Amino acid sequence: MNPSFKFLLAVLIALEISFTSTWIVNLALAVIGLLLILTSRPTFKRLILLFFVPLIPASALAVAILLQSNAGIHFALVLFTRIYAYVFVGSAATLTTTVSDLVMSLEQNAHIPSKFAYGFLGAFNLLPKIVSEVNIIRAAGNMRGQALHIWSPQLYFKAILASLDWSENLAEAMTSHGFSEEAPRTYFKRIRVRWWDWLVLIGSLVLLQVALFGFHLQ
Amino acid sequence: MKYSNAWHLRDIILLTLIAIFFGVIYWIVGPVYNLLTVALTPVGLGPAANDILMGIWVMAGPLSGYVFKKVGSATLGEFLGSVVEMFLGGQWGASTMISGVVQGIASELGFTFTGYKRYDWFSLNLSVLTTTIVTFGWDMIRNGYAKYNIGLLIALFVIRLISTWIFAGVLTKAIVKLLDRTHLMQTQTR
After folding, report:
1. What pLDDT does residue B1 have?
2. For chain A, what are the domain ranges?
3. Which of A109, A135, A166, B78 is the most buried (most CB within 10 A)?
4. Where is the signal peptide (chain A) (predicted)?
5. CB A117 within 8 Å of CB A104
6. Cα atoms in the Cβ-side hemisphere of radius 13 Å centred on B126
7. Per the CB < 8 Å rule, is A53 touching B91?
8. Could you tell me which residues come within 8 angstroms of residue B120 by beta carbon, excluding any fewer than 6 positions away?
9. Distance separating alpha carbons of residues A2 and A193, to the nearest angstrom
10. Does B4 score more than 80 pLDDT?
């Protein structure tokens, strides 16, 4: 499926189930999400994490509803399944799409200005460097006997200074490789919107409405 | 001082990098959130962990609003942070992006109400207030906060306000003060 359409669908589904309270639909969405995740052949560790990590907020919300309100077990179940639907539908989109495919699709199909698309892509590719930079900043602090915590302004300050430096370098590098902000571009890899993308998008949303309405009436 | 509203390649990369830094930091916060939630769940106060840490999650918004001083920069910064968090494997899946937009618009409102003219302690506090109110409203729908008894609801709101004020207010101000002293931002943002 076209990446832009896929993410649009995931967000629309998440938005819709935020306002509805039908746990069967949430459960069905989670199962569909899980099946899609399985097609991407995730590692066993990832799969275990996917099951257990949402368990924490999901049970926190459900227990809180049971103990702190009189909304009852049905609503607790709705909140519990809602979290799983969010995570599995979201992961079904993120695990089956690469960031560069999504960005290219957003540029070509959703017509986001190319400076945003490539600026984002360029920065995103620095992700491993950023993770190591956070560790370097904390290690450098420790060497001076200065522990940098999540509430230390220095941690963020140094991170922003590094960002300033890298953004300047990266922007210059891109410009010197011939990237210009307003110029029309040709594409090495074309990402098309096909008729079945529309069909899946509209079809899924219609099905969701029918399911929600049907269970609502019961 | 007048600031240009156009986004250039360098600004976009810088904004994304800052967002990624925050995304990575949010990701590091994840385990803290889990521990806190697990500790509070047996007494039915699990959601309080969300409110206690809320400030950390909404920091990218006011900070990018303050750093870039452009229309939409707070929303964009917060949204990109959430996208990064989602790709890193954050806990909330697809709803992370929606939360990102909600939190971004929420903190943006503080700057909108001052017409994007004031970037000082007042607009930052206003941003803290709009962030708390709007994100709390969203949690009333999404996380079922609306069903809690009124005492807990008020307690959660106050916890969230304090957390947001400490991180998105006081800490953001401290960071911006450090940045101002370097004189790097003035040439960068104009």
Report:
1. 44
2. 3-104+191-217, 110-176
3. B78
4. none
5. yes
6. 18
7. yes
8. none
9. 6
10. no
